[in-house]
Amino acid sequence: MTTTTTPEPTAIRMANDASPLVLRLVLGFIFVAHGSQKLFGAFGGGGIPGTAAFFESLAVQPATLWAIAVALVEFAGGIALAVGFLSKIAAACIAIDMAVAVAVFNGPNGFFVETSTGGWELNFILIAMCVSIILTGAGRYSIDHGLRPIVAKRSASLALLV
């Protein structure tokens, strides 16, 4: 008995290709905005001095160094996710950023965000979104997808050298 496979319908393929794009664009927007607050003081943020002061209040030391690191992870990581460049690395850095935020600040405040001190429910969602990108990749509509042939050739070359 022969089996034939039918090609995947175009609409389903397009939806599957668009899904990681939507995920990356939303995450990118969120983290570029938050990174801009920390890095430049945009959107009512405190910039590096305000972020460092907040970190000092949480006993995170050295506060200025961590303020710069977090601001760069969020801003540059958000841009990288939005365009789909080094997406898995950017998503991993942002997931770690959010996990540390839960451990240092949001965790003791409970799960629900509606509490007066804010819980970790949104951090949890953002971490899950990042893990999704780590597991599935950036998708067809990304710079990463376009670089796959180049990376594969270089990886094969490196493997031959070893």
TrEMBL record:
Topological category with respect to the lipid bilayer: Multi-pass membrane protein
Keyword flag Signal: no
Signal sequence segment: none
Keywords for the protein's UniProt record, in alphabetical order: Cell membrane, Membrane, Transmembrane, Transmembrane helix
Main location: membrane
Transmembrane segments annotated in the record for this chain: 21-43, 63-82, 89-112, 124-143
Subcellular localization(s) per the UniProt record: Cell membrane
Family (UniProt): Belongs to the DoxX family.
Protein known as: DoxX family protein
Organism from which the protein derives: Luethyella okanaganae
